[in-house]
Specification:
With 107 residues, the protein is mainly alpha-helical. The chain is built from five helices and two strands; from the N terminus they run αβααβαα. 69% of the residues lie in helices and 6% in strands.
Length: 107
Amino acid sequence: MHLQNLLDEGKLRRHRTSAKEIAELLQVADRDLADAAFARISPDTRYVTAYSAALALAAIVLHAHGYRAVGFAHRSTTIQTLPVILGPEAQTRADYLDNCRTREEHR
């Protein structure tokens, strides 16, 4: 898969990020990770919240590379781009995150 293919399919758009946008996404990830560590909430809620943090971090990677995922499957697209941008060593983590995504979507 190439990013150009995803652009051609309308799954990605070119995106110029800013330090403010990246900082806000980092704040989302930090907040969600802190919330997910709170033992008094249900395991399912902790799982969803941790997944949200991971997705925010994946979006940072994509935005910093000059793209934004769009459309119905934007979460899947964001995850798919990780090994393309970060290299094949990110494939295992992307696969894990995609499994989390499909679990979350089928709840």
